[in-house]
Amino acid sequence: NLPNLEILDLTGSKKLIECPNVSGSPKLKDVILDCCESMPEVDSSIFLLQKLERLNMAGCKSVKSLSGNTCSLALLQLNAMDCINLQEFSVTFASTDRLILGLTNWSGNELPSSLLNKKNHDSIYFPMIECLVDLPENFAKRIWLVSPLNREHVHPSITLHKILSSPAFIGVKLLVISYIPTLSEIPDNISLLSSLESLRLIAIGIRSLPETIKYLPRLSELCIYDCEMLQSIPALSRFTEFFIVSNCESLETVLSTMGGPYNHRPIPVTCMPGIEYWFDYTSTQVSFSLELPPKLFGFVYYLVLSQGRVEEGVGIGCECYLDNISGERICITSFPRADIFQFPWFYKVIETTIHMMSDHVVLWYDPVSCKQIMEEIKSINDVSGIGYNPKLTFRFFIDENVYDDVVIQECGFRPSKTSLKLHSA
C-alpha cells in the first residue's frame, strides 16, 4: 500500500503480465501503462480511483477488453491508442466534459455502446470507419481520424463522405485526417462542417482539395503535411489566417484569393548570407584544433546539415577536447537548444521524421561550455603555477548511426569577448 502515491508510471514494462491493484493508493492521479505489451488486462481498481485524471495505456498489445462500471469525475484523458487487440470497450464515464479519448485501433463493427450517449468530449482519436455515423451531435470539439486496423473493402473516400454528413461532425471545430495513404480525395461535402475552424491533413493520398473548401465560413487554419501526391490547392476563403504546407513534394499549383482585404501578419525570417565569412574558424572537416584565444566570454557555433531525413530530437552538437598540462584529455560538449527539431503536437502519436529538402544552417551561442573550459584552464594554472595556453580540438557531430543520410557539410565557430543573445536558427 502506498497511500500518498499520486503518479504510477510503468512505461515500457514489456514483460509485466499482471496489472497492479491500486486500491491502496487512493490519491493516484496519473496511471501510465504505455507499452506494457504482455499485460492482458487493466485492473478494475484503477477505474475506482476517485482522483484519477489520466490513464495512459498506449501500445498495450495484449489487452483485449477494457471495462469499468464507474469512472472518476476528474478523468481528463484515456489513451488506449495502438492497442491492436482491443475488442471490447465498456467504460462508463461519469463525465466526458474535457475528456481526451484515444481508440485508434478499435476494430469492432459497431461503436462501444458506452460512447453513443455521451457528448462534449474535448478530443477523440479514432479509426476512420463507417460506424462513426452513429455518434451523437456535439460528441467532440476535436476529432482525429487515422487508418482503420482492418482495411474496409469500401474506398476510404466513400467512408469519409458518409461520416462528414453525420451529426458528430457538423459541430466539430478541429478535424485531423492522418496516415491514410489510400484516401485519394476529400469529399465535396466537407463544406457541411460549418463550425470547422482548423483542418489538418497528414500523410494521405490526395492530389487536390475540393473547391468547396472555400465555403467553410469559420476555417481559419489549414495545415497539410507529408501529402506526397498533392499537386494543387484551390482558392481558399480570404478569412483563412494560417496556411501551412510541408513536405508535399508534388505540389505545383496554389490558387490565391488574396485580392481582397486581409490582416497582414509579419513573419520574421533570419537570413545569413555569407555566414562563413562571419566566423573566424571554418572547416569542411568535422574536427580541427587551435590555440585558445585570451579573455573569452563564449563561443558561437555553426554547422551546415545536408538535405535528408532526421527524427525529432536529433543529436547534434560540438565536443571540445582540452589537453591539460599532464596530457590528460578533458571533453566538454555543447548542444544547440533542445527543441531545434521539434514536431508540432499532432505529430506525437506516430513516430515520424522531418524531411529537409535543402541544406540547413544550425547556429547557437554557448557561454556555459566556454566557462567550463576557462575554469579547467584556471584550475590547471593554479596547480602548476605557470601560465598555460592549451590547444583545443573541436569535433562537430550528428548521430550518424541513426541519421546516416544527413551529414555535416561545413562547421565553424567564433570566439566572443562580449555577451550575446543568439538562438538556434
From TrEMBL:
Annotated TM spans: none
InterPro entries: LRR-SigEffector_domain, LRR_dom_sf
Cleavable signal peptide: none
Protein name: TIR-NBS-LRR resistance protein
Species of origin: Trifolium medium
